Amino acid sequence: MRAILGLTQDEVARTQEWSAAKVHRIEKGISPITKNDLAALLRSYGVTDPLRVDELQRLAQAARRQRQKLPYSTYGDVLTLEARRFFAYEQNADRISEVAMLVLPGLLQTPAYTRALLSGGHGTDSTRFTRLAEIRADRQQRITAADGGPRLHFYLDEAVLTRAIGGPSTMLEQLDHLGELSRRPTVTVRIIPLALGANPGLRGSFVLLEFLAEGAPAVVYLEDRRGDSVEDAPEVTDGFRDVLAELARDAAPADRTAAALDAARAVLRAGAAPQER
């Protein structure tokens, strides 16, 4: 309806005194539209016919009810509100960029790696592990295995490749899986060499989601022991874009990833990497 009227998201946002991010979230189905907000939009779009207004309000109400059935809405016992918000954004992203300095990103993990990570370093009990593993597997299926899915860009610290989560055999299986994923046309894996020394990735791991829709703001997800957060303010996300730009310049090129995996396999087979359980 907005497009038919020739309006941009920014114009609608200014008219309603909303942020452009709010308009984007509503149009992408990330955030449900309230009854009052829909009424205001319809008035600004010149929709006054009572039958049409009532029909659209009923559709919006049905959408709000359906939203309660979105993936992971029943996982509130193991997921924070911020994590569920992030997954809602992730489902609609056109480009996902992740910097991982300590462990492999969840989208790249094998079940054995996930099990070792959650049951060991994170001290997760068996019930919690099972539920978190279900979420991780579902995300992988929808995002990394989907045809026409988002472009995925991963920057991995070289140490992540030899940090033997679950022991050498689990890690070797993980490296094989990582190599297979890196050959997919929608996936780019680049390694941050230890020899690079100080680099912007050392500021911490993060995920940046980007969207092709006009006016759609980028979203960054941050997670550590203190908690997690989702940010879409440009003054925040622009800083993480800068980090990605620096890593794009300094990280090893993607065509060197296979060699880095081979080198990591050699280290693991020689038993040079400490086991972490």
In summary, what is this structure?
With 277 residues, this protein is an alpha/beta fold.
User: What number is the mean pLDDT?
Assistant: 88
Instruction: Tell me the count of domains.
Output: 2
CATH architecture level-2 label of the largest domain? 2-Layer Sandwich
Enter the CATH topology name of the largest domain.
Endonuclease, Chain A
Distance between the termini: 55 Å
State the CATH class of the largest domain. Answer: Alpha Beta
Low-confidence stretches: 273-277
Report the helical percentage.
40-55%
Compute the gyration radius: what is it? 21 Å
- Number of strand segments: 8
Q: What strand order characterises the main sheet?
A: 4-2-1-5-6-7
Task: State the helix count.
Answer: 11
The global form is: elongated
**Class by alpha and beta content:** alpha/beta
Quote the beta fraction. Answer: 5-15%
How many strands, what sense, and barrel or not for the largest sheet? 6 strands, mixed
SSE topology string: HHHHHEHHEHEHEEEEHHE
Question: Mind explaining what this structure looks like?
Answer:
This protein has 277 residues and is an alpha/beta fold. The protein folds into two domains: 9-67, no CATH class; 81-276, Endonuclease, Chain A (2-Layer Sandwich). 48% of the residues lie in helices and 14% in strands. The chain has eleven helices and eight strands. The protein has helices spanning 9-16, 20-27, 35-44, 50-67, 81-90, 111-121, 126-143, 158-162, 168-182, 234-250, 257-269, and strands at 95-100, 151-157, 164-165, 187-192, 206-210, 219-224, 227-231, 275-276. It has a six-stranded mixed beta sheet with strand order 4-2-1-5-6-7, sandwiched between helices. A two-stranded parallel sheet has the order 3-8. Helix 1 crosses helix 2 and helix 9 runs antiparallel to helix 11. The longest helix has 18 residues, at 50-67. The radius of gyration is 21 Å and the shape is elongated. The N and C termini lie far apart (55 Å).
